[in-house]
């Protein structure tokens, strides 16, 4: 007896045929505070030829997510609603016909991270494939979702101040998301790192090989005691006046004092600020694959202080806004 071979069932071109669930995503409907945020439900859209759709397993969180709602320079209503969240980790569920990720041809089922994208606080995102990379297998989704925003900022701080082997550097705010990445990357360059933190977060600095010291009154003396041969560069993620004052007292070359947050103080004192230029964007984009490789090798960890359900984004942002979250936070849809 012979069997007539039945035609194989046609593979759906798109998972949308089986997975058409609505997209839940946070948007800011106006400029101002967290009260402007709303969780919206919309129909998913198909990826364009050079895009992929990712089911988000974790959305990375960064202070800029709430800062941009109040600091958006022009506050142009045409920008609204703001799509919140610049990075995610998840699984590709749909691909455009010509989608090539930063790691090669895009395929459904790949575990990936994406940065820098818009609208990461969501259950799914449809984003340019060029900003998507295979996820390091040794990272969890919340870790992978927080690797690149802080990591690329830290890399650029080190790049701009041109520190290297044998330099002693001071990191203000070494226990946070940017700070912990900075400590690790500086150590890999062969720097000696002194990092300020609150005493309850000293372990975030020490576990990566930095020397933790307490910020607050007397900071300059404590740094001098920890670095008797002086400090080559001061990299600030805290944005405080104390950080700027102490940096100026310790580092004579102002090109080696840089902040991620105290922009006005930097302008007043003739020191440097990070970001907000095409050159900065280009540098950060160019360094993404390298940082992913470091993470894959186990040389760059992402300390996650907590995860929250997607629906609790505003609660998580409140914690982030304290400036003492103690590491990265992620939203888990
Ligand atoms: N310009 C850019 O391109 C760029 C890029 C990335 C980030 N940023 C900015 O960089 C800043 C840090 O980001 P992040 O994600 O690392 O934030 P984060 O995770 O909240 O870290 C904040 C850090 O600041 C420390 N800190 C808090 N209050 C302090 C004080 N009074 N004195 C000294 N240190 C204090 C915290 O230490 P404890 O928790 O131990 O108290 C922690 O180490 C944010 O303002 C963010 O917007 C800018």
Topology:
Layout: E1 23-28, E2 37-42, E3 51-60, H1 64-71, E4 82-83, E5 88-95, E6 100-101, E7 104-105, E8 111-114, E9 124-128, E10 132-134, H2 141-144, H3 148-161, E11 168-172, H4 177-189, E12 192-197, H5 202-206, E13 211-214, H6 219-226, E14 233-236, H7 241-250, E15 257-259, H8 263-269, E16 272-273, H9 278-296, E17 304-309, H10 313-321, E18 328-332
Parallel strand pairs: 11-12, 11-14, 12-13, 14-15, 15-16, 17-18
Antiparallel strand pairs: 1-2, 1-4, 3-5, 3-9, 3-18, 5-8, 6-7, 8-10
Helix pairs in contact: 3-4, 3-9
Question: How would you describe this structure in keywords?
Answer:
333 residues; alpha/beta; seven-stranded mixed beta sheet; 10 helices; binds NADP nicotinamide-adenine-dinucleotide phosphate
Question: What global shape is seen?
Answer: globular
Fraction in beta strands: 15-25%
Order of helices and strands: EEEHEEEEEEEHHEHEHEHEHEHEHEHE
Low-pLDDT sequence parts: 1-19
Kindly state the mean pLDDT as a whole number?
93
Helix and strand content put the structural class at alpha/beta
Biggest sheet character: 7 strands, mixed
What's the tally of helices?
A: 10
What molecules are bound to this protein? Answer: NADP nicotinamide-adenine-dinucleotide phosphate
**Considering DSSP H and I runs of 4 or more, what fraction of the residues is helical?**
25-40%
- What's the alpha carbon Rg, rounded to whole Å? 22 Å
Distance between the termini: 52 Å
- Number of separate strands: 18
């Amino acid at each position: 007896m012979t069997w007539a071979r039945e035609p194989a069932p046609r593979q759906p071109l798109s998972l949308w045929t089986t997975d058409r669930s609505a997209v839940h995503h946070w948007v800011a409907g106006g400029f101002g505070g967290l009260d402007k945020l709303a969780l919206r439900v919309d129909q998913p859209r198909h990826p364009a030829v050079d895009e992929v759709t990712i089911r988000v397993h974790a959305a990375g969180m960064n202070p800029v997510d709430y800062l941009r709602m109040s600091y958006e320079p022009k506050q142009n209503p045409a920008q609204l609603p703001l799509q919140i969240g610049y990075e995610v980790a998840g699984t590709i569920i749909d691909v455009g016909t010509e989608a090539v990720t930063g790691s090669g041809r895009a395929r459904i089922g790949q575990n990936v991270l994406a940065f820098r994208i818009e609208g990461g606080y969501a259950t799914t995102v449809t984003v340019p494939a060029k900003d998507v990379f295979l996820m390091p297998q040794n990272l969890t989704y919340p870790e992978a979702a927080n690797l690149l925003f802080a990591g690329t900022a830290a890399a650029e701080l080190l790049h701009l101040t041109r520190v290297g082997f044998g330099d002693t550097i001071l990191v203000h705010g070494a226990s946070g998301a940017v700070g912990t990445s900075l400590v690790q990357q500086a150590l890999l360059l062969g720097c000696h790192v002194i990092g300020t933190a609150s005493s309850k977060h000293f372990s975030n600095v020490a576990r990566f090989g930095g020397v933790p010291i307490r910020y607050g009154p007397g900071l300059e003396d404590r740094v001098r005691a920890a670095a008797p041969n002086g400090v080559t560069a001061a990299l600030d993620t805290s944005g405080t006046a104390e950080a700027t004052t102490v940096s100026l007292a310790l580092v004579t070359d102002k090109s080696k004092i840089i902040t991620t947050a105290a922009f006005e103080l930097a302008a007043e004192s003739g020191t440097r600020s990070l970001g907000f230029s095409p050159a900065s964007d280009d540098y950060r984009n160019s360094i993404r694959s390298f940082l992913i490789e470091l993470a894959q090798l186990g040389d760059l960890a992402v300390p996650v202080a907590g995860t929250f359900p997607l629906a609790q984004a505003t609660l998580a942002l409140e914690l982030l806004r304290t400036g003492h979250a103690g590491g990265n936070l992620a939203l888990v849809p």
